């Protein structure tokens, strides 16, 4: 085992050397349209990446997820970027999506903004959508420095090779009635996409944002999303990852929730050979709330890892984390959820639940819910369960003439649907959209 770990470390170090050469080339010959304000941020981010190196399995947060293959694929792809976009592929992928009615659609292909594939937004003082490539120096610096996040190695990689992104700003006291649908497409070329999305919801403002990842072939995505919810605001944020089974996908979301604000999130993973999702939420104002829901469905020999961290920094804050996993064949899942109640966060109410359904004897799940409490007068609980389909329910359905395959699909669907239904009251149309996407996966998963 020690030799295997050493070999992985050696391969990751070699990949980082190749990535450094690609970075130096990028800085010397930046792509056309790269904003000047991005260059210093890239330099600082790459210095952090170079100093820290890629995560290793001996790092506690990466104990069950090996990133060696991700590092090597990143190195191979970054050597040859940028590439011309396959417009036909992107158009086909968009055409295969169910329609999300009344949407504001923003499309990126291989990390680059595509206005021709987006649905035009009329000038509106309630909502600003600014691609990084068109942002002025002042706006750009505010985008990248609103949160000190580049100590995270994967976020540093994203910043170092960032080509474009989107800044969403909802004005104070405004309610955006349409879903903002941001679609990131990887078109199947050997490309390491570094998507970036920045969301700022103003004081007493409301919004719904869907971040959707789709791809073909052996794509690689390293996505970063930063979210700021000002006082008394409400945001429903949906992350849907449905990339190809040959792809690799790493995602980070960093969220700050101010006083009397509500952040609702649902994170869904259907695709990718390797998927890792990190969600960090800071409840920094009194009475801030966060409801975090998650679902992943996987089969074959695929690997899905969800890491959550919720920091209760202020009094009378509330959080709820409910995640479910469904695994078949030799698939492997990881769930690590950590709630930290800091000194002074009296009156905190934090609840965490992780339930997993294993549909084969060879499927595996590693689950680790954690609580760290540094104050009194709080109410916290966490739990995790792993099991198989309920045989009594199967018998009930079979006794009524339902074939075994259909009965299995019905039970799995009900298990998954409970997660999606948590957002139905907030957006029935979006819940239906996610249910349609989920139903497409069921024949392969069950």
What order do the helices and strands come in, and which of them pair?
Blueprint: H1 2-28, H2 38-52, H3 68-78, H4 87-95, E1 104-109, E2 112-113, E3 127-131, H5 137-144, H6 153-160, E4 166-170, E5 180-186, E6 192-193, E7 196-201, E8 206-215, E9 220-229, E10 234-242, E11 248-257, E12 262-269, E13 274-283, E14 289-298, E15 303-312, E16 318-327, E17 332-341, E18 349-358, E19 364-373, E20 379-387, H7 391-399, H8 404-420, H9 428-445
Parallel strand pairs: 1-5, 4-7, 5-8, 6-9, 7-9, 8-10, 9-11, 10-12, 11-13, 12-14, 13-15, 14-16, 15-17, 16-18, 17-19, 18-20
Antiparallel strand pairs: 1-2, 3-4
Helix pairs in contact: 1-2, 1-3, 2-6, 7-8, 8-9
Q: Give the end-to-end Cα distance, rounded to a whole number of Å.
A: 34 Å
Could you give the count of β-strands?
20
The whole-number mean of residue pLDDT values reads 90
How are the strands of the largest sheet arranged? 2-1-5-8-10-12-14-16-18-20
Number of helices: 9
Shape: globular
Proportion of helical residues: 25-40%
Total domains, how many? 2
Uncertain segments are none
């Amino acid at each position: 085992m020690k030799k295997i770990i050493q070999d992985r470390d050696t391969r990751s170090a070699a990949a980082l050397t190749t990535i450094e050469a690609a970075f130096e080339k990028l800085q010397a010959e930046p792509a056309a349209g790269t904003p000047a304000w991005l260059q210093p941020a890239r330099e600082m981010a790459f210095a952090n990446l170079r100093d820290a190196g890629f995560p290793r399995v001996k790092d506690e947060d990466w104990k069950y997820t090996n990133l060696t293959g991700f590092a090597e694929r990143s190195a191979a792809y970054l050597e040859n970027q940028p590439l011309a976009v396959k417009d036909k592929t992107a158009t086909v992928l968009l055409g295969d999506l169910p329609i999300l009615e009344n949407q504001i659609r923003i499309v990126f292909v291989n990390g680059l903004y595509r206005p021709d594939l987006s649905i035009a937004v009329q000038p509106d003082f309630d909502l600003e959508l600014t691609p990084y490539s068109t942002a002025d120096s002042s706006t750009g610096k505010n985008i990248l420095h609103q949160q000190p996040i580049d100590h995270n190695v994967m976020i540093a990689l994203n910043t170092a090779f960032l080509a474009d992104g989107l800044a969403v700003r909802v004005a104070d006291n405004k309610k955006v009635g349409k879903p903002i649908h941001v679609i990131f497409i990887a078109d199947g070329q050997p490309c390491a996409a570094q998507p970036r999305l920045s969301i700022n919801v103003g004081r007493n403002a409301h919004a719904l944002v869907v971040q959707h990842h789709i791809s073909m072939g052996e794509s690689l995505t390293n996505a970063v999303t930063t979210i700021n919810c000002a006082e008394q605001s409400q945001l429903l944020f949906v992350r849907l990852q449905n990339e190809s089974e040959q792809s690799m996908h790493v995602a980070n979301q960093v969220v700050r929730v101010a006083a009397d604000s509500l952040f609702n999130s649902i994170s869904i993973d259907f695709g990718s050979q390797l998927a890792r999702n990190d969600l960090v939420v800071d409840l920094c104002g009194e009475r801030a709330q966060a409801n975090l829901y998650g679902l992943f469905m996987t089969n074959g020999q695929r690997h899905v890892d969800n890491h959550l961290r919720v920091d209760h920094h202020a009094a009378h804050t509330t959080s709820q984390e409910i995640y479910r996993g469904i695994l078949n064949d030799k698939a492997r899942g990881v769930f690590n959820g950590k709630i930290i109640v800091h000194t002074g966060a009296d009156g905190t109410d934090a609840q965490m639940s992780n339930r997993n359904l294993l549909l084969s004897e060879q499927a595996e799940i590693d689950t680790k819910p954690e609580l760290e409490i540094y104050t009194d007068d709080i109410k916290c609980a966490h739990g995790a369960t792993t099991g198989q389909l309920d045989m009594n329910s199967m018998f009930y359905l079979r006794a009524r003439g339902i074939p075994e395959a259909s009965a299995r699909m019905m039970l799995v669907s009900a298990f998954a649907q409970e997660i999606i239904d948590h957002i139905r009251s907030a957006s029935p149309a979006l819940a239906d959209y996610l249910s349609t996407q989920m139903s497409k996966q069921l024949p392969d998963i069950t």
